[in-house]
UniProtKB/TrEMBL annotation:
SUPFAM superfamilies: Nudix (SSF55811)
Superkingdom classification of source: Bacteria
Gene Ontology terms for molecular function: 8-oxo-7,8-dihydrodeoxyguanosine triphosphate pyrophosphatase activity; 8-oxo-7,8-dihydroguanosine triphosphate pyrophosphatase activity; 8-oxo-dGDP phosphatase activity; 8-oxo-GDP phosphatase activity; metal ion binding
EC identifiers of the protein: 3.6.1.55
Taxonomy of the source species: Bacteria, Bacillati, Bacillota, Clostridia, Lachnospirales
Record's protein name: 8-oxo-dGTP diphosphatase
Length: 135
């Protein structure tokens, strides 16, 4: 089981999605920025590091939005998705193919990693509740 952390980064009525590098597993599918927790690191610290490495931004990490487990043929992940906001910087394409700020109603237009389906369903049901986002 591999622990993966990811960020639900919101700005107004939009949230950030990132397109995975073509050469990686699940290449070109869309995801939430993040990655694998390293030994000795809290999940929150791991998320701050991943957001820096992948987008060049410093984030403030909020509450957990959702936790789930998903098995791919190559890996089983325990994915923790946190609410987060950008504290410093603007996203840069340091690793991803692309990124987009999208509205909840635009979710069906994009092909996401299969593990994210449950997250996206919940977002479509509930929208982006402002009270869960860190200020
Ligand atoms: N970051 C991220 N990974 C996801 C999501 N959904 C999903 O199935 N995954 C999978 C894809 C990968 O197989 C696995 C680990 O994510 P990752 O590739 O971002 O890990 P990482 O940044 O640490 O990259 P690496 O060092 O292993 O190359 O989790 C998601 O929304 N965000
Ligand atoms: Mg990553």
């Amino acid at each position: 089981m591999t622990e993966v952390v990811a960020a639900l980064l919101c700005q107004d009525d939009r949230f950030l999605i990132c397109q995975r590098p073509a050469h990686k597993k699940r290449g070109l599918l869309w995801e939430f920025v993040g990655g694998k927790r390293e030994a000795g690191e809290s999940k929150e610290k791991a998320l701050v590091r991943e957001c820096r490495e992948e987008l060049g931004i410093t984030v403030k990490v909020g509450e957990v939005f959702m936790e789930l487990t998903h098995s791919y043929p190559d890996i089983t992940i325990e994915l923790t998705l946190f609410w987060a906001t950008i504290f410093q910087g603007t996203p840069q394409l340091l690793e991803h193919e692309d990124f987009l700020w999208i509205k909840v109603e635009d979710i069906p237009k994009y092909a996401f990693c299969p593990a994210d389906e449950e997250v996206l369903r919940r977002l479509m049901e509930r929208g982006l509740p402002r009270e869960n986002q860190p200020v």
